[in-house]
Every structure is written in C-alpha cells, then in structure tokens.
C-alpha cells in the first residue's frame, strides 16, 4: 500500500498527525482511518465480485489489472510473445562491438610496444617509409 512512501515521509506524516490531532485524539483518529480503509476494501471486493458474477462463468478468472493497457496488449494481442524484443535488444547492445574494438586497440598497442623494443634499423624503401609514418601517428601512451 505504501510502496512509494519512504521512511522520512512516514516520520513527517507521523509528526504532522501528532501536531494536528494531538496525542490524546490520535489513537481515535487512527482507528477511524483504519475502519474506513477496511470498509473501502470490502466495498471494492464486493463490487469486483458482483461484476464478475454479472459477466458470467467464462469471466470467473477475470482480473481488473488485465485492463491496464500494457497488460491487455501483452496478454491478448501478443499472446505472451514479446515479438523477439530480447533479440533486438541484444543486437542493439554495443558492448560486444566495444569489447572487440578495445581488444584490437590493446593488440595494436602491444605490437607497437614490441616494435619499439626491437632494435631500430632504417629501411629507405617506399613501403617502409609509409609504414613508419603510420606507426608514428599512433601513440599508445596517449590512449
């Protein structure tokens, strides 16, 4: 019943009730409120039972929560099937791709560290110059 009310709000309500009604009348007020809640619940249950009996025996297991739009669509339109929403969510989840990219960056950093540790020799061919220019643009310490 009080799922959205936190402990601080309950303490605030208790202090406010003591200030409004006083410590002498507070037990009487609490009894009146609880009696009202019991009568309201009883009235509500009786109304639900009367509606179920008027609907007939095929609606014996009818629940009023099923009238909520989300529940109604899920139960009657989708027949319990979520239309593959879990597969769509997993396909759109970027964690797998991010893990692959981070692994590739780590591998590139490891190879560049291995190249830096190897003795340097100068190769003046055209391909070696392009390769060293490509390696020079990647700084593993900056990542």
Automatic annotation (TrEMBL):
Membrane topology: Single-pass membrane protein
Subcellular location: Membrane
Pfam families registered for this protein in UniProt: TatA_B_E (PF02416)
Superkingdom of origin: Bacteria
Key word Cell inner membrane present: no
Record-linked InterPro entries: TatA/B/E
Region (Disordered): 104-143
Cleavable signal peptide: none
UniProtKB keywords: Membrane, Protein transport, Translocation, Transmembrane, Transmembrane helix, Transport
NCBIfam families: PRK01371.1-1, PRK01371.1-4
Protein name (Swiss-Prot/TrEMBL): Sec-independent translocase
Organism from which the protein derives: Streptomyces mirabilis
């Amino acid at each position: 019943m009080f799922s959205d009310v936190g402990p601080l709000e309950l303490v605030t309500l208790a202090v406010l009730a003591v200030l409004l009604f006083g410590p002498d009348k507070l037990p009487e007020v609490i009894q009146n409120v609880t009696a009202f809640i019991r009568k309201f619940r009883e009235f509500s249950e009786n109304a639900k039972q009367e509606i179920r009996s008027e609907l007939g025996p095929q609606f014996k297991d009818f629940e009023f929560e099923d009238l909520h739009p989300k529940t109604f669509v899920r139960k009657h339109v989708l027949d319990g099937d979520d239309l593959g929403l879990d597969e769509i969510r997993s396909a759109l989840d970027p964690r797998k791709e991010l893990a692959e990219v981070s692994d590739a960056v780590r591998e590139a950093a490891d190879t560049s560290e291995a190249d830096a540790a190897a003795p340097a020799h100068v190769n003046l061919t055209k391909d070696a110059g392009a390769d060293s220019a490509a390696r020079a643009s990647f700084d593993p310490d900056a990542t």
